[in-house]
């Protein structure tokens, strides 16, 4: 019997935080949405199904490692990927 292997986003792994499965899963959901477009935390709640406080917690963790950044000139903040971190490998 083979177990399904969960594939996490490469940028979901953080260097300054313990990487547990639940956190990796949440950050992967967030990063997949942010790969498509810059969005607000409210939009991330709708698209990922995660709680607002969970979204903010992980966005701040990702921001501390410069994986995401927020547009701070107006509220609500719009979050986007910085391009720093590991990149997904393209398969042929």
In words, what does this structure look like?
- 40% of the residues lie in helices and 11% in strands.
- The chain has one domain (10-81): Winged helix-like DNA-binding domain superfamily/Winged helix DNA-binding domain (Arc Repressor Mutant, subunit A), CATH 1.10.10.10.
- Helix 1 (21-36) packs across helix 3 (52-64) and helix 2 (41-48) packs across helix 3 (52-64).
- Mean pLDDT is 87; it is low at 88-92.
- With 92 residues, it is of the alpha+beta class.
- It contains three helices and three strands, in the order αβααββ.
- A hairpin with a 6-residue loop joins strand 2 and strand 3 (78-81).
- A three-stranded antiparallel β-sheet has the order 1-3-2.
- The protein has helices at residues 21-36, 41-48, 52-64; strands spanning 39-40, 68-71, 78-81.
- The termini are far apart.
Keywords:
alpha+beta, 40% helix, 92 residues, 3 helices
């Amino acid at each position: 019997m083979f177990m399904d292997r969960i594939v996490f986003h490469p940028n979901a792994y953080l260097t300054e935080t313990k990487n547990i499965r639940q956190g990796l899963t949440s950050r992967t959901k967030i990063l997949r949405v942010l790969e498509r477009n810059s969005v607000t935390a409210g939009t991330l709640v709708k698209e990922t199904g995660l709680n607002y406080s969970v979204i903010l917690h992980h966005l701040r963790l990702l921001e501390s490692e410069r994986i995401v950044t927020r547009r701070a000139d107006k509220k609500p903040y719009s979050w986007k990927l910085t391009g720093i971190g590991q990149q997904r490998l393209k398969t042929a």
